[in-house]
From TrEMBL:
N-acetyltransferase domain: residues covered: 20-190
Pfam families: Acetyltransf_3
Organism this protein belongs to: Penicillium angulare
Protein name: N-acetyltransferase domain-containing protein
GO MF, any single term: acyltransferase activity, transferring groups other than amino-acyl groups
InterPro entries the UniProt entry points to: Acyl_CoA_acyltransferase, GNAT_dom, N-acetyltransferase
């Protein structure tokens, strides 16, 4: 089953943006495992998204093996590692994760993936999340032929909403999404249907902003 999933990506597979290199996570790569523990353990992450449950390299390895590789195998996308590329030294350094996620049937899921991102707090504000998001959306549409991409985020996560807007997504409203079980601001790339039900998103969408204290 999922533990036997194999990555469909050829060795060296990379999504390239001007400053970043976005690559698949490798459960056998200790640096990947340790970085995930660090990134998802920062105060900003836990305060915004809650505890990840990825507390040590062994749990990161298990998570990548069982969950991330299964997503790659099923969709050719999922959770990727974001590296900062240094033009002078030609070296890369992990700075975040960027994701294009679609749930596994028969669970609650929509027919198109949604983008996600986490960047090390000390490197926030430099446009890295926006650049990674644009890179993943281009990969989804051009390389995988995916017709549209969602962006879901807590209505009060201003930085995240800004990332989606800067990456060119359009605000569609607020809804209590079954996939997250909480209130989310919903964005889509331009050109998607007015009726989000055609993508399996049938929750009631409110157009107006709310003053909720959601994450
Ligand atoms: C959200 C996150 C990924 C942003 O990463 P980043 O690399 O700093 O993003 P960018 O630099 O591309 O863009 C951030 C934008 O938000 C703005 N911003 C950040 N905090 C803000 C605030 N409190 N109020 C208003 N704008 C804010 C920045 O100024 C920037 O916009 P600008 O370029 O117009 O100035 C990062 O803060 C993070 O990892 N947060 C925790 C995880 C998370 O919330 N992920 C999203 C889950 S849906």
């Amino acid at each position: 089953m999922s533990s036997q999933a194999k990555s469909p990506f050829p060795a060296g597979f990379t999504i390239t943006t001007p400053r970043l290199r976005i690559i698949p996570l490798d459960p056998e790569n200790q640096e990947h495992c340790e970085f995930l523990v660090h990134l998802w353990g920062t105060e900003l992450f836990t305060k915004t998204l809650g505890p990840s449950g990825i507390d040590d390299a062994a749990s990161a390895k298990k998570f990548i093996t069982n969950r991330v590789l299964a997503d790659y195998e099923r969709n050719k996308h999922g959770l990727f590692l974001v590296l900062l590329y240094n033009e002078e030294t030609k070296q890369t350094t992990p700075i975040g994760t960027s994701s294009l996620m679609k749930g596994a049937p028969p669970g609650a899921h929509y027919l198109l993936p949604d983008v996600g991102y986490v960047i090390l707090p000390e490197l926030n504000g430099k446009g890295y999340a926006t650049e990674a998001t644009k890179g993943l959306i281009e990969y989804a549409t051009k390389d995988l032929g995916i017709d549209g991409v969602f962006g879901f985020t807590g209505p009060d996560n201003i930085a995240s909403r800004r990332v989606l807007e800067k990456a060119g997504l359009e605000f569609r409203g607020i809804a209590d999404l079954v996939v997250f079980g909480r209130l989310s601001a919903i964005y889509t790339v331009p050109g998607m249907s007015e009726d989000l039900g055609v993508y399996g998103l049938n929750e009631e969408i409110r157009k107006e902003e709310t003053a909720t204290a959601d994450k």
